[in-house]
Amino acid sequence: MKKVFWLLTCCCFSLSACAGDIEAVSASPLKVDLQRVVEIGAVQPVNGITSAGQPDEAAFKVFADSGYAAVIDLRTDGEERGLDEQAVVEELGMAYLSLPIGSDGISFENARALDKLLSGYDRPVLVHCASANRVGALLALRASMKGADNASAMELGRQGGLTRLEPKVREILTPEGP
């Protein structure tokens, strides 16, 4: 009888641990910690998108191995990436798309451009800049364009990496009256 009790106890602990792992994987954040992505060796998109700061070659490999179709790079030409990003991404079998947007380029027009690029893929897409701040800003505006109220759009932006550009996004979402 003791053996049966011990076996059931071990099974319960194992199932509980597995459930925690499954919950952690299914509750993936929109903006990912790239070091953690490389450590785990896998990444899950949220509604087909993952946001991040600048990935390195090891991180790009994890995205490719996880079935990502494309990488959208919001960094401008003058920003150092530490690698030939386009070559690395394409060698791994993903499409590389450059949509260079500086902090002064946060607008509904650029959110529409990002939306158009995202709509071209039925598999997950990584969108990144240096820190994910610009990504989060454009995702907030994109959510607003798709009907989200300002509070929900801002929350989505924060989940996507929006930080110091938050006042600019608020200003765009809440234009002054006549």
Give your account of this protein's structure.
There is one protein chain. The chain is α/β, with parallel strands linked by helices. It has 2 domains: 1-28; 31-173, Alpha-Beta Complex (Protein-Tyrosine Phosphatase, Chain A), CATH 3.90.190. Helices cover 51% and strands 9% of the residues. The protein contains 8 helices and 4 strands. It has a 4-stranded parallel sheet, with helices on both faces. Helix 4 (85-91) links the parallel strand 2 (70-73) and strand 3. Helix 6 (133-145) runs antiparallel to helix 7 (150-159) and helix 7 (150-159) runs antiparallel to helix 8. Mean pLDDT is 85; it is low at 1-27.
Which percent range fits the helix content? 40-55%
What structural class do helix, strand and pairing data support? alpha/beta
Query: If helices are DSSP runs of H or I spanning 4 or more residues, what is the number of helices?
Result: 8
CATH topology descriptor of the largest domain: Protein-Tyrosine Phosphatase, Chain A
Order of helices and strands: HHEHEHEHEHHH
What characteristic shape results from the CA principal axes? Answer: globular
Radius of gyration: 19 Å
How far apart the termini lie comes to 79 Å
Proportion of residues in β-strands: 5-15%
Overall CATH class of the largest domain: Alpha Beta
CATH homologous superfamily of the largest domain?
A: Protein tyrosine phosphatase superfamily
Describe the strand arrangement of the main beta sheet, using strand numbers. 1-4-2-3
So, CATH architecture of the largest domain? Alpha-Beta Complex
What's the average pLDDT? Answer: 85
| Low-confidence parts | 1-27
The tally of domains stands at 2
**Largest sheet geometry:** 4 strands, parallel
What is the count of β-strands? Answer: 4
